[in-house]
Specification:
By secondary structure, the chain is of the alpha+beta class. The chain has two domains: 162 residues, Aminopeptidase; 142 residues, 3-Layer(aba) Sandwich (Aminopeptidase), CATH 3.40.630. Helix content is 39%, strand content 25%. The protein has nine helices and 14 strands. The protein is globular and about 60 Å long. This is GNAT family N-acetyltransferase.
């Protein structure tokens, strides 16, 4: 992360005397790539009015649309203290926007409790939608399938049958046990797929993947996929916590019908069931996940816009958008493939 990449670190530290009471990741952004809470239309509106939207400030985990804490609080802080610190952070952010001439601040994918802290400061709130799989105490993948309607169950079985015919072998490897050759294989798959899709080799470098292997390998699962000749044909990168599985990146060197769904969804579901994980978050967007058992869930972001007129316009937009998101989630919930509510 650097000025060159458009993610310049500008992290916020809150102290009380000599004690650090809170930390918040903060970046000076010169574009909106890698955020997954889309504000391109806001930037275009600024440009049409001959105003600069960039640089702006963003609090998020770069290239990671995962809900979580965006402020690290001292554990001893009470809820009242946390609200006070959050309000002070907003005061400082507003001062920085005015003094540094940054257009705005955006706190992305905060969890619900933290989102409440942000909302209580009176700033703009925005809702979105993702799709997460829930483990309803399934014994195995077949048990998961039996919870579905017959038609949906048959569709998934048909998709998986395509892969079975290809005689591919799927192996999960712990990140700290993965060899250099396995990591290089994953990177090759990742870069090849980005090259075909976007004309470049991806935003994340081989050095980045090497670094996370060294620093958080115990939280990583590499899915290595080989053909009958033991040749690597695809790979996927997952992260795991005590309760959640997160599917993030994948790539393929060869094309197989249904391989994306198998590598990025069904293998993840099987892993979550086998390891008694509660939730599988397979990434941003994708309402096609609903037919495969993923529930629609609300996501939250917070925003401060320095320009008064744009602040009012964006707040009105977000309020109208919330109503649409709520309706969308209700509609997607009705399309879930389960026999009964899970």
């Amino acid at each position: 992360m650097s000025h060159k990449t458009g993610w310049q670190p500008h992290h916020l530290v809150v102290t009380q005397g000599d004690t650090i009471v809170a930390l918040m990741p903060l970046y000076i952004k010169t574009h909106s790539w890698g955020e997954y809470v889309f504000d391109w239309a806001w930037a275009e509106a600024y440009e049409r009015n001959q105003l600069d939207y960039y640089p702006k400030l963003v609090s998020s985990i770069p290239f990671t649309p995962t809900t979580g804490a965006r402020i690290g609080f001292l554990p001893s802080l009470s809820d009242i203290d946390k609200q006070h610190v959050t309000s002070e952070i907003i005061t400082v952010i507003k001062q920085q926007l005015s003094e540094r001439q940054w257009s705005s601040w955006h706190g992305l994918f905060s969890h619900k409790a933290e989102h409440t802290l942000w909302a209580n400061t009176g700033i703009i709130v925005r809702h979105g939608c993702q799709f997460h799989w829930r483990n309803n105490h399934y014994v195995d993948f077949n048990d998961f399938l039996t919870s579905m309607s017959s038609r949906k169950r048959k569709n998934i079985t048909k998709e998986r049958a395509q892969i079975q015919k290809a005689q591919l072998r799927f192996t999960f490897v712990n990140g700290d046990d993965a060899t250099d050759e396995q990591w290089q294989g994953f990177v090759r798959c990742y870069q090849q797929t980005y090259l075909k899709r976007s004309g470049h080799q991806g935003y994340l470098s081989a050095a980045f993947f090497k670094l996370i292997a060294q620093t958080m390998g115990e939280s990583i699962r590499l899915l290595m996929i080989h053909n009958a000749q033991d040749e690597l044909v695809a790979s996927a990168l997952y992260f795991v916590s005590n309760t959640h599985l997160y599917g993030r990146y994948w790539g393929a060197l060869s094309d197989y019908d249904g391989l994306h769904f198998e590598a990025c969804y069904y293998q993840g579901i099987e892993y979550a069931i086998a390891n008694q994980l509660h939730v599988f978050d397979a990434g941003a967007q994708g309402e096609h996940k609903v037919a495969r058992g993923f529930y629609p869930v609300a996501t939250y972001s917070s925003h401060v816009i320095d320009h008064p007129a744009f602040s009012d316009a964006i707040e009105n937009f977000c309020q109208q958008e919330q109503a649409h998101i709520k309706l969308y989630i209700e509609q997607m919930t009705q399309l879930l493939p389960y026999k009964t509510s899970n």
